[in-house]
Design a protein that fits this description.
With about 350 residues, the protein is of the alpha+beta class. The chain contains eight helices and 13 strands.
């Protein structure tokens, strides 16, 4: 059905219109973005076709119809196949317009929390960047002396078997030096140009599949109609590589990873409203992010693995902030989803 109210197209409020059989007659772009659905897949179907945990919503709709008046559900939980759960405020209003008889308006009640979290993340990124830079400079200088001393010591050793220990010192010094270079990488000025996000993801996919056993499956769920993105290709490759590699390592190389791309509409990123943004999701069916790490997973030197250095997500967050975007995650056992949003001009 054609849009009965063209002005709904431009609202930031998510709106769904239902017909007399409680089927979706119309869904505006804000609702498509909120529920990560397309109108083509939903129009003509009942809401249960694409949403879960709809009992509370059904009760609100019944209240509105019974009283022939608007009914507001201040705390509504809905599940979607792209998200775990959404916390919403819903207004159901009876409406006589052609075959449409009920209008549903949805407002995310966690939006103020999201804005506050974005602001906190920006502050954290700046603090992390300064910490990492200072740390790198403090550690990098003595490493050359340690490595040189180990080499001189190795030349003086008479027993060849003792050189194994000096080699450990030299190798660890080299590893730490490489780590310090990574710490300083975010300070480099990004080089922006038009790029295809799917070329970035395909390169990352090949790298990770080459590193991991054959039990790892990386599926593609691409929206090939996405326009070019203006960004730094090398930085975005590093971001996606860190996210996909983390997912693969969390599953010990055995499991499914989905690379999903979509258009997001009417998105606020770093306090600026964007009509369109590119959404990239890395979804895995692994054990999930441990509860004690969820609030600090983007902090430097925080890792869920004993062999991890805790810099991958910190660098990813810093690179994405340089693109004026955001990176968030939802996690529970069996499903973890990292979502990257990047503004489109």
């Amino acid at each position: 059905m054609a849009s009965p109210l063209p002005t709904l197209e431009h609202l930031s409020t998510a709106v769904i219109l239902l017909d007399e059989q409680s089927r979706v007659a119309y869904i505006n772009p804000a609702a498509e973005n909120l529920f990560a659905l397309s109108s083509k897949s939903l129009v003509g179907h009942p809401l249960q076709h694409a949403l879960t945990h709809t009992d509370q919503l059904a009760a609100a709709m019944q209240q509105a119809l019974s009283n022939n008046a608007s009914y507001i559900e201040h705390s509504l939980t809905l599940g979607t196949y792209a998200h775990n759960k959404l916390q919403l405020r819903c207004t159901a209003t009876p409406l006589q317009l052609d075959k449409v008889y009920l209008i549903l308006e949805f407002h995310p009640i966690d939006r103020p929390l999201k804005l506050a979290r974005e602001e906190q993340m920006l502050d954290q990124t700046q603090a992390s960047r300064l910490l990492l830079r200072n740390l790198a400079h403090e550690i990098k200088n003595p490493l050359g002396g340690i490595r040189g001393a180990a080499q001189l010591l190795e030349q003086e050793l008479e027993k060849p078997e003792l050189r194994e220990y000096t080699q450990v010192v030299i190798q660890e010094a080299d590893r730490l030096r490489a780590l310090m270079e990574k710490l300083l990488t975010p300070q480099h000025v990004p080089h922006f140009s038009a790029l295809n996000i799917h070329e970035v993801l395909e390169r990352v996919r090949r790298v990770v599949l080459a590193e991991m056993p054959t039990e790892l499956i990386i599926r593609r769920d691409y929206d090939i109609s996405l326009p070019p993105l203006h960004g730094d290709k090398e930085q975005l490759i590093q971001v996606m590589l860190n996210l996909v590699r983390n997912a693969a390592q969390a599953m010990h190389g055995q499991g499914d990873i989905v690379l999903r791309t979509r258009i997001a509409r009417q998105v606020t990123l770093i306090k600026k409203r964007h009509r369109l943004a590119m959404m990239v999701q890395i979804i895995d069916n692994g054990p999930g992010v441990p509860e004690h790490l969820r609030d600090k997973i983007f902090y430097p030197l925080v890792s869920g693995r004993a062999e991890g250095h805790g810099l991958g997500l910190t660098l990813a967050q810093d690179f994405i902030s340089q693109h004026q975007g955001s990176i968030e995650f939802e996690s529970e056992p069996g499903r973890t989803c990292f979502t990257v949003l990047l503004p489109l001009s």
